[in-house]
TrEMBL record:
It is an enzyme of class 2 (transferase). Residues 4-170 form the Thiamine phosphate synthase/TenI domain. This is Thiamine-phosphate synthase. Mg(2+) binds at D47, D66. One of its GO terms (biological process) is thiamine diphosphate biosynthetic process. Pathway: Cofactor biosynthesis; thiamine diphosphate biosynthesis; thiamine phosphate from 4-amino-2-methyl-5-diphosphomethylpyrimidine and 4-methyl-5-(2-phosphoethyl)-thiazole: step 1/1.
Length: 196
């Protein structure tokens, strides 16, 4: 899967696995690290700082209830660190930290944009109109995620997205590599049309 995604142009691959044993997760992470290195893609691990460090991952993505980004940065000063942002208030707090030069994140994620089955316990989806509202609070790069399918791309780009993250749009596809390539092509075209 990592080879299929990164081999077709995915610039970032995130390993999100809530079910594997620690040992199996580390094996997967090391496999993903090798494949993403071969493809020149950034490799992130979800939630698990220990696995990110042991596998040589480029970064770690955490949710609002996971390890505090400040502690992660203290332990791993060179790691790319991203955090999910599920409400406008969370985006506002990021902006306040940024203004005080206290923000340690490398990027943040806005979502879920659409209904999704991959994130339990989150509030309802926020819709593409939230992209502009959230992103005006903080100037860091951001991704958008949550229930995104290929036909959503143009609406997301029009709303201000530059980086679009997907899960089931690719993992549920018969040919993950071909679907990854289609999504990237569609995103690239939409960005070119928007940005001229």
């Amino acid at each position: 899967m990592a080879r299929q995604r990164a081999g077709r142009g995915a610039k970032i691959v995130q390993l999100r696995d809530k079910d594997s044993s620690d040992r199996r997760l580390l094996e997967k992470a090391r496999y993903f690290r090798r494949r993403t290195t071969e493809a020149g893609a950034l490799f992130l691990v979800n939630d698990r700082l220990d696995i990110a460090l042991m596998s040589g991952a480029d970064g770690l993505h955490v949710g609002q209830n996971d390890l505090p980004p400040e502690e992660i940065r203290r332990l791993a000063p060179d790691l790319v660190i991203g955090q999910s942002c599920n409400t406008e208030e969370q985006a506002r707090r990021l902006g306040q930290q940024e203004q005080r030069s206290e923000l340690v994140l490398s990027y943040y994620n806005i979502g879920p944009i659409y209904p999704t089955g991959t994130k339990d316990g989150l509030a309802e989806f926020i819709g593409p109109e939230a992209i502009e509202a959230y992103s005006r609070h903080c100037s860091l790069p951001f991704t958008v995620m949550g229930g995104i399918k290929e036909h959503h791309v143009e609406d997301l780009v029009r709303a201000g997205a530059r980086r679009i993250a997907v899960v089931t749009a690719v993992t549920d596809a018969e040919d993950m590599a071909a679907e990854t390539a289609r999504l990237i092509s569609r995103i690239t075209t939409a960005l070119e049309e928007r940005d001229g």
